[in-house]
Amino acid sequence: MMKEDSAKKVALITGASSGIGEAIARRLAKENYRLVVCARRQERLDKLTEKLKEKNSDILALKVDLRQEAEILTMFNTIRQQWGGVDVLINNAGLGHKEPLMTGETEAWREMLEVNVLALCICTREAIKDISDRFSEGHIIHISSMSGHRIPLYSGVYAASKYAVRALTEGLRQELREANKNIKISSISPGFVETEFAEKYSNSKEKAQELYSRFSMLQPEDIANAVYYILSQPDYVQIHDILLRPTQQKS
What we know:
The chain is α/β, with parallel strands linked by helices. The chain has one domain: 3-Layer(aba) Sandwich (Rossmann fold). Helix content is about 45%, strand content about 15%. It contains 8 helices and 7 strands. Helix 2 (about 40-50) links the parallel strand 2 (about 35-40) and strand 3 (about 60-65). It starts with 9 loop residues before the first strand and ends in a 7-residue tail after the last strand. About 40% of the residues are buried.
């Protein structure tokens, strides 16, 4: 039997101002979650909040740079003051740069590792504190990548960050079971999704358009639906990792 009542659970979605994060926020707004959406772009957050409030009045939008631990901790303290903490964390924020191992820029590598790995770890740690304090049936979901399962050319560091997410998912699952915590951990590993990612990765709007014109790509809503599928499982079912790609994607 599927879970039916997600009423007033608090869900934090990182990187929620566009693409997959925005789609997840829209999906969970329909399911009566209290939503916390965070991102670096305030104007995008304002637009998203305005739209979401048409369906759900419980929205908290916070401008956060996930490379700054102090800002992450301030965000969680704000959530605790507002709603007592989080029950669900969607670690969606992530980025990639086409910076090869032989010639890449250190700062680009650092940004990928800080956002894709370290910020994810910090947010996860703080969410577990909240879920434990609230005696909640909590859930943490990492939005990872097919690059955590294979390594595309010139993407060694980006893939390394997603392989880290894969290890962190299983590592946390083991820790939670050892501590007898009533918290689930899951991951979603998408292939090509039509978002802003490709343009930022290649630093070229034209290359992104060429990529997305090859065949029918996944849409952000496909990932949002996978998130809700995970959250809607019975208590005894824990989805570990969902791998999904466009039907025509080769790897």
